[in-house]
Amino acid sequence: MMLVDGIPANAVPATDRGLNYGDGLFETMRLHGGQVPLLARHLARLRAGCDRLQLAYPGDVAIGDDLARLAAAAPGEGLLRLVLTRGDGGRGYAPPADAQPRRIAARYPLPAAGSTTLAVGICKTRLGQSAALGGLKHLGRLEQVLAAAEVIAAGWDEGLMLDSDEHIVEGTRHNLFYVRDERLCTPPLDDCGVAGVMRGLILEVLAAQGRPGTEAPLRYHDRHEISEMFMCNAVAGVRSVSRLDGRELGAARFAAALRAPLAAAGVAWLA
Ligand SMILES: Cc1ncc(COP(=O)(O)O)c(C=O)c1O
Questions:
Q1: How far is the CA of 67 from the centre of ligand 1 (A)?
Q2: Which residue has the higher pLDDT, 1 or 177?
Q3: Model confidence over 22-60: pLDDT tens digits?
Q4: Backbone angles phi, psi at 96, to 5 degrees
């Protein structure tokens, strides 16, 4: 089922700026027990993204109504995807002054669970760096499209993406945490990568436990110093990495310790 501006439909005009320029944002949310447990976090990120792109935020009520209708349409688990574009916009990059944002909300089945631990390789496709876009979940996802094709061709479960300064930033569809010298760290996302909802929640849970995770860059050449790695997103939760670039990693101690506090914080499907 799909709603365009709250109306059942499965098409948008060819003039939509999301289609023409990637001019918009999206959220992918886990539906669990008829609810979106991390809804407030998704809406907060979308609102913040709208501020950065100067895109009018449609409001919690309109979005909440769309999502509630999609959740009620069928029982069971699933995922909800909300796309917000700058709407129709003629020819040329300049955003029209009277732009009317368009929201597209859709429900999909959960992806196949796959293996519980991930064998992860290193993608050749790099992430472009731009302070204007760093952290945003914007619609321009060609880098991930190319990298995901690499992951399939190589037979990995997921691939790590580097920026042009040889830093490992994130996966094609996950953020990452790594353990180095017994310290749990996650790469900063100031000029590329998506500031994930699950990553944000994990940082909060760690801080509440009094053992904060640190934002620290991870150089590709230092990957052998990592003793543990796990990846996270709002649909899967947390998945530990068993193989990193052909090397077996140690037991997933840090990831295992996060399960109970994350379940208590709303990631109930991890319990
Ligand atoms: C490129 C990328 N990075 C990170 C994430 C994790 O974001 P979230 O925790 O909000 O799902 C995703 C999620 O799909 C992603 O596509």
A1: 19
A2: 177
A3: 999 999 999 999 999 999 999 999 999 999 999 999 999
A4: -60, 140
What pLDDT is recorded for position 90?
64
Whether the CB-CB separation of 250 and 226 falls below 8 Å is answered with no
Ligand 1 close to Cβ of residue 173 (< 6 A): yes
Pocket lining: 189 vs ligand 1, CB cutoff 6 Å: no
CB 79 within 8 A of CB 35: no
Q: Parallel, antiparallel, or unpaired: how do β-strands 118-122 and 237-244 relate?
A: parallel
Q: How crowded is the C-beta side of 136, counted as CA atoms within 13 Å?
A: 26
Please state, in angstroms and rounded to a whole number, the distance separating the CA atoms of residues 145 and 125. Answer: 10
Q: What is the mean pLDDT of residues 189-193?
A: 97
pLDDT-based confidence at residue 197 (cuts at 50, 70, 90): very high
Distance 171 CA to ligand 1 centre (A): 8
Q: Degrees (nearest 5) of the Cα angle 42, 47, 50?
A: 125
174 lines ligand 1 (CB under 6 A): yes
Query: 15 and 88 in contact (C-beta within 8 Å)?
Result: yes
Task: Please give the number of the atom of ligand 1 that sits closest to the Cα of 144.
Answer: 1
Would you say the CB of residue 120 lies under 6 angstroms from ligand 1?
no
Nearest CA to ligand 1 atom 8: 196
Query: What is the Å distance from ligand 1's center to 136 Cα?
Result: 10
| Cα 195 to ligand 1 centre (Å) | 7
Q: Can you tell me which residue has the tokens 């094609």?
A: 172
Ligand 1 pocket, residue 197 CB under 6 Å:
yes
Inform me whether the pLDDT recorded for 105 exceeds 70.
yes
Residue type, 25: L
- The pTM score is 0.96
Alpha-carbon span 179 to 218, nearest angstrom: 10
